[in-house]
Fold this protein.
Amino acid sequence: MRRILLSIVMIIAVFTASSQFVVNFKAEKLKGCDSLTVQFRDLTTATGLEAWLWSFGDNTFSEERHPIHHYATPGDYTVQLTILRSSGSNLQTQSLTKEHYIVVNALPDTSHSTKIAMYNASFCVGFFGLSNADSLDYSYTWHFGDGDTTVGSAVLHTYASSGFYIFNMKVKNNEGCEGAVTDTINLVEFFSVPNVFSPNGDGLNDEFAISSDGNQLFKLQIFCRWGNLVYETTAKNVRWDGRNSVGMLMIPGTYYYNLTSVGGSNSIKKAGFVELAH
């Protein structure tokens, strides 16, 4: 009798062990950048597997055994696989859930700004990559459109001449996610400066007049050859009639001028020599 009972217990134990199975799966990529495509593989080795149901953590599902899934938005995702198995006349289900299994990082912010400064015929432009609102480290690479490149979140670049330039900024974080943006910058001369004038009252070139679009305020300073300031004015359209601050006509000769912008979004400076002739 004892042998019969022992045999029955062993049969039940064998049947129970054979009826259980363990679900296992893996993803080819666990982390990546927006947007991320992941190959999932079922690693369950039991026989009699009939059906699969994947939940990818973003309210999407699949009934394939080895699905490929595309994550469209950043976040961390919990993945679950449920398998249906037939064992004799019985149907069994087992599940495996992996919490926060897939991590999709956002692409870096490619917002940027520029600030133009002009000195004589050259343009110095500041390029700024705007900071990202997270704790990741970022590296920036700039291509300025004139053959030069540099790195840094805030950089200065000097263009030798006016013109229309196409520049590119690439930003990469320490998770390997990279964003890029292409933009344009149009560098134009803000004014035209003569190099000679003759204040003799004949109506031709009587003033040292600097032509601009009339929107920017400028400060003009005139110095004699000994470095003394002889005239100064601030206006949107600056001009000098050859007289000093007390109204006396200056003698013919070469004078040094210094022109700087006052206020405004761009910094402008131009300096040089002008010939006063009678």
